[in-house]
Specification:
It contains no helices and 29 strands. By secondary structure, it is mostly beta strands.
Length: 447
Amino acid sequence: MDQLGNPIWHSANGFLGQLEVQQIQGKDVLSYWTGGIGGGFVDAHGMGTITILDTSYRIIQNVTLNDGTFKAGDSMQNKPYPSYIDIHESFITPKGSIIVTAYNSTPYDLSAVGGPKDGWLLDSLIYEIDLRTDETLFRWSSVEHINELPLNGSHQLHPNGTIIDGNNATHPWDYFLTNSVYPLDDGYILSCRHYWSAIALDSRGGVKWVLNGRDGGDFKMINQSGKSSTFSWQHFIRPLSGTAGKNLTITMFDNHNNGFDNGTAPSTGLALHLDLQNRTVETVSALQDPKDVIYVDSQGTYQHLPHDHKFLAWGQIPKLKEFDDRDQVVMNAKFGYDNQVSSYRSYLVSNWSATPYWAPRIATTQEQNGNFTLSMSWNGATPDVYDSWIIYESAHANGPLGKHSQQVRRTGFETNATLSVGTKSVMAAAAKGHQVKRKSERIRVGV
């Protein structure tokens, strides 16, 4: 949508998520995930494909993952998915690769945490895939690192302390849940929601350090001026400044709530400073709107913008806010009813300029006074591409249209204009000034 809340592009029908403007070789692209959610075991995860579009909305590439080892829902009924990429991450790196997550239902002895000996858990997987060759450049498995990241570090428990699920392959224990991955120097930084942790990996997958939101993990929490460094159930960890060797500032969306642990602390945009040599952590800021305190169980975005502005999206609650360099709210938006409409991640972007390869669409409606209204739209065309509509009317159903009869200013996703009395057929063209960008088909009025 544009800054006024008008839609710009509607995708085709289907389950689509993680829509993001990214770059490949310096060119803007639009990426999104599409697929199935749940797969018979966990509603929060998906099995799908990453689709990448150019600025005309033509498909450049479909990124898939299926190495024959995945067990998920329908696949256990001999109905395998064509691709097992999860919805949570799809970051395109400057070197032309894409980082994605996946989940695999895996047999495991859970007796050490009070579960069944012949139990099942969800293995949280990370892949980095070369977009040019489809080669897997990096693979990481949480199960293969349980010695470094033990099961008893998980907070995915019932209020009485027992693990949630884990009895069979279709209801495995989702003990880890990696919901963001980002390159960090010679490795990666992970957000692990059910572990309440930011975790740094080296280039071979070894665990370099763990920042735990409850007790600091490998770091000592320094609370200054009443600013706590605790966090929980978080999303979208990104490095803001520094390096993995000395000092590092990270941002995250700190949900601090989930389905059974909620209402005690608001959800905020949290910035933390890590002294990696002395292993200390302290809060830089915990961003929220004091006039609109929000508690959200799942999803969310903290995006750092130019000029020290920040953008927060509350995921499960369909609210968006931009803050200035003094942390004052300068933009408020809401795009649906609470807990009925959600967006896993949202972004504030200024660089998406798109000219669709398809033509504009038009339709006519007869009003009560007998006049006909022409409705015009060009799905996907950004406001910089065209600013008006040139309308060509004819008193004949067929034959020449002649010169245009009127030009009207674009008023959003759909623009309406009243046709002249006696118009039998009409065509419209999206225009920038007087330059025609693309013409619609000619249609008969009232048919």
